[in-house]
């Protein structure tokens, strides 16, 4: 048989790397039903609790009534509707950039942007812990592609010194599996010394960082010259779906001309844009959601350090506990699940070998009591599976 898929699958299973999809049988949220079991969940990216907000749902339903369900065509044919346009204008204003462009997913936004900006004869430099979509984009671009050490400005500098052609430095704003922030002020200064452009994917920072939820650029107060290419995704704190690129007039027009994942795909349903316009207002205006998150993060970090666990250094709602082996991460995740708590084990290749972890994410909809329940379950899980087993 030419394709020996069964051996490949068996190898993956033996290495404790086999993936299974839990079946969600309830709406997304803090309390979910998965595979028939009611669970308290600490693993979705709906950080502000907007995915099931009644006003967002209503805007979506009304949008579907008015605009139908499907996007109907690609943006350049006849799929670019008034709700898409209004959302792009609102996102430009929100990010303080001249223009924004809406895409159907963050993965496509990253592929489309990098491949439209650099190609053969150019250079793309990426943090080695960047999201897979950014790394794939770098490879696909055909530019010289190199990964620098995580958040290491010296390591970036030595690569910049050897760069050729147009050079793009690409980083996550908040690292999706670690929760830490990119060292953006230093990174932007280093890129500028070498005439390189900076592209930031702030999928996990928008909504959570900055007083108005403007993400890492608001957090550090960075302007469009320092971060000319800014990506946000809408499936996380915004609670809807899709993504955007924000930047100059020329950047957005270039993407409309050259970004293949933008050009050759059906636009997102206009109703999603209607829902996102509503969630953007809530995300900006309801400061209590970020304040609640900050309290929960402090409570969780204090509690976990008392348990002697290896908590990663993160100021964001992504609070990973470093475990090491995939087997132990799976064991702890299963022990939590037996206690009614859902936290997924993240394993290679999503994270580097030997750094499997429990990726805990907090939401503004969690209560202090929910976090206490998680801490208690963690303590019991550790007793059941002491280190070394
Ligand atoms: N960038 C980052 C940093 C992400 O974490 C993700 C998704 N988890 C994406 C991009 C892809 O976004 P989307 O889910 O909208 O494709």
Automatic annotation (TrEMBL):
A GO molecular function annotation here is: pyridoxal phosphate binding
Q: Into which EC class is this enzyme placed?
A: transferase
Q: Which pathway does the protein contribute to?
A: Cofactor biosynthesis; biotin biosynthesis
Describe the location of the Aminotransferase class I/classII large domain by residue ranges. 39-378
Work out whether the entry's keyword set contains S-adenosyl-L-methionine. no
Query: Pfam families this protein is in?
Result: Aminotran_1_2
Q: Which keywords has UniProt assigned to this entry? A: Biotin biosynthesis, Pyridoxal phosphate, Transferase
Residues the record lists as N6-(pyridoxal phosphate)lysine modifications = 236
| Enzyme Commission identifier(s) | 2.3.1.47
- Stated role: Catalyzes the decarboxylative condensation of pimeloyl-[acyl-carrier protein] and L-alanine to produce 8-amino-7-oxononanoate (AON), [acyl-carrier protein], and carbon dioxide.
Its quaternary organisation is: Homodimer.
Q: Which NCBIfam families match?
A: bioF (TIGR00858)
Which HAMAP family does its entry note?
Answer: BioF_aminotrans_2
Q: Which family does it belong to?
A: Belongs to the class-II pyridoxal-phosphate-dependent aminotransferase family. BioF subfamily.
Please state what the protein is called: 8-amino-7-oxononanoate synthase
Please name the source species.
Halopseudomonas phragmitis
